[in-house]
Design goal:
Layout (H helix, E strand, L loop, with lengths): L2 H6 L6 H12 L1 H17 L6 H12 L4 H5 L2 E4 L2 E2 L18 E4 L2 E2 L13 E2 L8 E2 L6 H5 L3 H6 L20 E2 L5 E2 L8 E5 L5 E5 L3 E2 L4 H4 L5 E5 L9 E2 L15 E7 L5 E2 L5 E9 L4 E8 L1
Parallel strand pairs: 1-3, 2-4
Antiparallel strand pairs: 5-6, 7-8, 8-11, 9-10, 9-12, 12-13, 14-15, 14-16, 16-17
Length: about 290
Amino acid sequence: SQLPILLAEYTFRSRRDVEDYLALLDQTDTYFEGIAGYLRDQAAEGLFMPDYSVDKVIDQCDTIMDPAMLEAETHFLNTTFKPSFAPEGWSEWHIAPKLFAEYNSSDAEGNPIDLTSRRTEYKVDGQTEKAKRQAVLSAEEAAKYTYENVTAGTDDWNPRKFFEEVAAPANLSIDGTGALTWEASDYAICYLVIDDKDNVVAVTTETAYAPVSRAESALASYTVKPVNEYGSLGEAAKVGTTTGIAGTSVAGEVVSRLYYNSVGVASDKPFTGFNIVVETYADGSTRTTKTIIR
């Protein structure tokens, strides 16, 4: 039940985040198969959910397309449908949608789907005549659904500005004491200081950062990323010089590595698909990364 919220609140800060998000979507069927298997095991042991909970689930399934949702127009533009389904496409919901149409749909192999048999009539409760609705958009109609036409509305909402990258800080350098300095980036409200293991070691509104320990200052490479007012990360500035302080070990070797799948199950071996990897180092510090195993 939390999956829609998790996907809605997923933060996009890099190309890798987008790729991971798409991979997560690709694993949705596996996720639900895992949940279904767990529920089957529960039922086999006599531990299934009570009847009133089952009734709630059934009610949710029956009302997933409620009248309010069907009053809004629904469009599928240039959509790839991985599963195959009946030629008529959509079921009847005892009410006629305002518009439930598609354009340029294709199957999992990229082949165009024949839309000539899509449902155009809907049975409506209390009416003898079926309601007729458009099922396929023309190229001219589909072309009207541009970013500007769809998002602007009457309030000029423009979510693209949330993701406008701030330029990387200029002249990032490390002095002999291990302090970082850089020039301010236009439109940045703060900066992330990141070490060579991708750990955020500082968030600062200043254009300088002094490491709290000599171990940090001994790192061979730092990056600094600006953050805009909407929380989106800008391009990273890299340091290509060392501090001149040698002989110190930051974290040491990895002593354990755990993999977590999208359901939260842990293993010492990677899962097929999406993994959250938690590495623990000899000094007790940890590093968390994401990876996709295909």
